[in-house]
From TrEMBL, chains A, B:
Protein family: In the N-terminal section; belongs to the acetate CoA ligase alpha subunit family.
Alphabetical list of SUPFAM superfamilies matching this protein: Glutathione synthetase ATP-binding domain-like (SSF56059), NAD(P)-binding Rossmann-fold domains (SSF51735), Succinyl-CoA synthetase domains (SSF52210)
InterPro entries per UniProt: Acyl-CoA_Synth/Transferase, ATP-grasp, ATP_grasp_subdomain_1, CoA-bd, Ligase_CoA_dom, NAD(P)-bd_dom_sf, Succ_CoA_lig_flav_dom, Succinyl-CoA_synth-like
Organism taxonomic ancestry: Bacteria, Pseudomonadati, Pseudomonadota, Betaproteobacteria, Burkholderiales
A Pfam family: Succ_CoA_lig
Organism whose genome encodes this protein: Trinickia symbiotica
Keywords: ATP-binding, Ligase, Nucleotide-binding
Span of domain ATP-grasp: 496-530
Name of the protein in question: CoA-binding protein
GO molecular function terms attached to this record: acetate-CoA ligase (ADP-forming) activity; ATP binding; metal ion binding
Amino acid sequence: MNDFKHLLEPRSIAVVGVSDEAGRPGSQAVRALISNGYKGQIYPVNPKYTEFDGLKCYGAVSDIDAQIDLVVIGVPAKGVIPVLKACAEKSVPYVVVLSGGFRESGPEGVEREREMLAIARAAGIRIIGPNCLGFANIHSQVFAAFGSITREPKLKKGGVSLVTQSGGFGYSLALACADADIGFRHVIATGNETDVDTVQLIEALLGDNETEIILAYIEGTKDGRALLDVGKRALAVGKPILLWKGGVTEEGARAAASHTASMTGSYDFYRALFKQTGIVEIREIHETVDFLKAFAAKKYPANGAMAVMGVSGGSAIVFADAGEPEGLHLANLAEQTERLLTEVVPNIGAVHNPIDLTAGYFSASNRDKLRTAIEVTLADPGVDALCLNLATTGSAGSTAAAEVIANVAKDSAKPVCVFSSAPRDQIADASRLLAAAAVPLFPSPSRAAKALAVLTRYGAARREAKRSEYGESSAAPSSKDDLRGWAGKLSEAQSKDILSRAGIPVTRDVLLSDADDSLPEKLSWPVVVKIVSPDIAHKTEIGGVKVGVRDPKELESAIAEVRANAQFHAPEAQIEGVMVSQMVKDGFELIAGVVNDEVFGPVVVVGAGGIYAELMRDSSCRLAPFDENVGRQMLDELRCRPILDGARGKPALDVDAASKALAALSRFAWEHRDAVSEIDINPLFVLPQGVLAADALIVPMPFPGH
Amino acid sequence: MNDFKHLLEPRSIAVVGVSDEAGRPGSQAVRALISNGYKGQIYPVNPKYTEFDGLKCYGAVSDIDAQIDLVVIGVPAKGVIPVLKACAEKSVPYVVVLSGGFRESGPEGVEREREMLAIARAAGIRIIGPNCLGFANIHSQVFAAFGSITREPKLKKGGVSLVTQSGGFGYSLALACADADIGFRHVIATGNETDVDTVQLIEALLGDNETEIILAYIEGTKDGRALLDVGKRALAVGKPILLWKGGVTEEGARAAASHTASMTGSYDFYRALFKQTGIVEIREIHETVDFLKAFAAKKYPANGAMAVMGVSGGSAIVFADAGEPEGLHLANLAEQTERLLTEVVPNIGAVHNPIDLTAGYFSASNRDKLRTAIEVTLADPGVDALCLNLATTGSAGSTAAAEVIANVAKDSAKPVCVFSSAPRDQIADASRLLAAAAVPLFPSPSRAAKALAVLTRYGAARREAKRSEYGESSAAPSSKDDLRGWAGKLSEAQSKDILSRAGIPVTRDVLLSDADDSLPEKLSWPVVVKIVSPDIAHKTEIGGVKVGVRDPKELESAIAEVRANAQFHAPEAQIEGVMVSQMVKDGFELIAGVVNDEVFGPVVVVGAGGIYAELMRDSSCRLAPFDENVGRQMLDELRCRPILDGARGKPALDVDAASKALAALSRFAWEHRDAVSEIDINPLFVLPQGVLAADALIVPMPFPGH
């Protein structure tokens, strides 16, 4: 891990490519450093000048007679390599390449970027960019940047650090936050990410004491596992990550390809990763602002029971409408709470939730009553958070109310938030009071509900992370098979044998080889008969499966039939024999499997079986490995989930066993990630007692043990 | 229909309940009328005063020696009835009751509200309220209101009329619009809606020349059919309705019950109605602002092909991400278009969509180039709308660009919109230029995409409305059955017989009565055997159905078995006989049905059959009657829809026939809406050719012909 200390906090900066021509990136950087009062050394570089904006200007990096922490390169693409070589000679540790004309511009640029990276690697230089807006350290007035980052409005200091692949769109997030008076620590636009990438920077920011929350925009990552790890560490240290994933649709991916040429992974895998790490996905600019405000207090609801207090019934309805699909509900207040509220809420109001204080309640004279109302509500053990509607009561009333709210909120372990649709100027004073107390103020009840839902989920992810560390899993121990010898193809029998040892129950099968086609022992009628061949992946399609075989006579003819069909449809296939399996009834069919993704590594997928699985896309996934609690969450996300509880009078099915099987599968896939390319268990029957894999296929890596 | 002319545009207003006490609603109304310069007569009423704020004050309504168009009542609840009686004597046509203390306050209030309505009905008085904020006519400075409606900020004149059941939350919509410089015509808060309701007011606004677009917040309506009709008329006259439905979740509904005690219908039915009328559902305050801006130009994309032009690849990705789930896609530009763009777009930019003009392009010197770029893009027949990103290029550049955009947009039949995340003050001039040309300016690419998607869907609804008028339906003519004689229970045989005559194909059945239990003719094996009794609704559960009956011998025993089972499980049931039906294979099972809802009338529902239907809630509904195009839309909304196109090598199924069957069912349900309470067709098989209802049940109204 690199903390990038002298990258983000450089003691000296050389800027190559300053010029009197308007708009040159290097000039913008130098001017921003000067005007913002950067305290370190600034070395402008341009052989044509001896002075630039009052600073001594150098002919080349090599002319600078001092240690340089950071070189900012803003010359045209063709000139970048020579400058980088000079940096290498001078042992410069960090370089920001603002210039475009690399990978994004065609074959010549691809070659140039490759050469640049090779030089940097050889010299131990770490590069931000190329083709980027650069970065700024708002606390230390470092501006290794150009364009919007160096222009008005100036960001104020704060605890948010932004890392973005897209400078243009990413910085618009910062501007929206600035408009809402949110302050920043670092703002970093990474462009092509030829060397330093978003994930590495987030990792470094976890170690930065001034960074309290991380905001990121990414179009893709080449290493999903690194993102998973950094996400888990962020959760552990309590620094929330708010992440916008660009390029999530076909259209988006297409536009991504023409933009920074990033590798875009599957959105489903990203979303699984977000769930496993508590990363908060953002999809709108105003959400970014709302969620940053919400996280400022670092208080998370223990559950989804919300109390709403205000003067508009309509607003409470809108709050409830927006919260319910996000997992929130209106808390049931205790009798004691309602009794205490009765003493401070007017008769024409309501002391049940939503609590109606009645119009005009917010006033200086009602301060004590309001304080009591808030305190008794927060004290109710059935209330996880409180949301107040600061209605349009004019400036004096809202200020008086905000004073009380801010005071009570400070001492409360439960989150308190406010929404108000009053005009900005009417609640300017109230806004300031609330912001100072880290009480978020939202512009609508629905946005308040969504922000509280995000806090609730984040709190749950924190608790879950503390509980479930890999290693404490209750999943069965995985197989000790040495899989290096795999030939590249595994039959159903081999696959089930391996999975069985990995802790996944499989149907009782008897493999009949050519030599002894006799009746199976230990199986009860009816049975299923299947051809066994590593060369036949889809047995059903070629007539290689017979179900419902009821007696020895039917068995004999079934065996003959599947053999004949295999011979007819796949004459070249190597036939290992015929498998006779116990026939499963009274279960529900799931499909479970593993995709060993290039970016995300092994991912476990589960879905409803049969025709609906494919067509209705009822599936859920998580990155392996995980424990049975995560397995249960996956099942809970399926639309077919209610069926497992026993539909139409049928018995409830064994969700525990299914959860454990998924965890076992995830552990197996993780431990054999170098050897396993894909796994399909289809179907995985969930029974009233236990689960059974009735068919399975493990596809090894093309080059095992690579 | 009532145009409420002298309600919303009164020539004289009496206000009962003025007082020097601070905050009295009547006083607020009079002062708002005076300070805003209302041109008509104002008559304050309070026996304690002879003058109020410089106006002559009257002792009672009866003391006013002139015709009064509108009386505003702001006295406490107990005093309302006497005032209303005085209004009746004076033949006052309209009254606004601001006072609370009616239905929402308990049994006494319910009785008071009933008495008030009776007096009004008898006297022909129309009432707004009670328990409401009242209304304002912003064009004529009418303020029959109190509270936030009469306070700062003053709304500016414009073409938006707001009708809201919730004064508090509803007016927050107006405030958000005011902040975005959107102007208003009428703002009406209806409260308890004891007489005049939201739907009637929307209907009146359709006839108001100054109202161009209608914004509404409702928690419930007692007459879904009236809303359907007014929605269809609004679509026909081209006045968009933006509607926020509060109380859509269980939680929301619960809060609703304690608020205005409105009757809340099913949200699914509302959403079906919105689709059938082009009503735009809003669920966020900022959406309200975005969509109002978007509708201002009255131009709708012909389809979902969007061109995006700007300088940030990231923003284009975000636009595409947000648009795709809403039905938008990035247009493929014609070769000709790209060639023409090459002449005006810098080499390092992109002439394919999204079009990258490159940073710094927006400047006074590039005016002509920008104009050409926009014009050739809009001229491309494959482009339905254009969205420009006004990046953060400073004030001069954005103003120059806005001038060009505004000019070209005026002459374009296709919608042009702009998004920008630049700080407000940097684009203040650009904003004004764009607003003057009705070019909407959105704060993010995703919000631009969502607004364009709404315009696209509204345009499609307009075209659909012109095409499909009820009466031109291709659905089969409905049954002429006289259903008045129904006894309250219908057997499967009777139900299928009736539906068959209504144009819905049913399985070939033979009903065997006690007398002649002989083999059926005209049926091919296998067959299904079912008990027939109006007293047994769920035949399968009692063993009253045998499927796959293969020969005469099996038939004989099947008949005996279902009779025995019926006798055992339902000894009291009247048995009409046994039905032998053709067994359907190779089809997909749907469930189709009708719910005759108290609020919405007959609604047709269709869903996937079998266990998945119930558990996965895969269904779609529309208000009857409708034609087969709407039937097809319903099927298209089902998650199981791909199965109908032929899954896993199976033949495609007859979607046309299924659509026609739904249309026929809808027509039948509509024509017999006074007699039919419920219809279930389960299953409705969709076959490669045609559809077949294999079982059906019609539940008549408890009191037929009521």
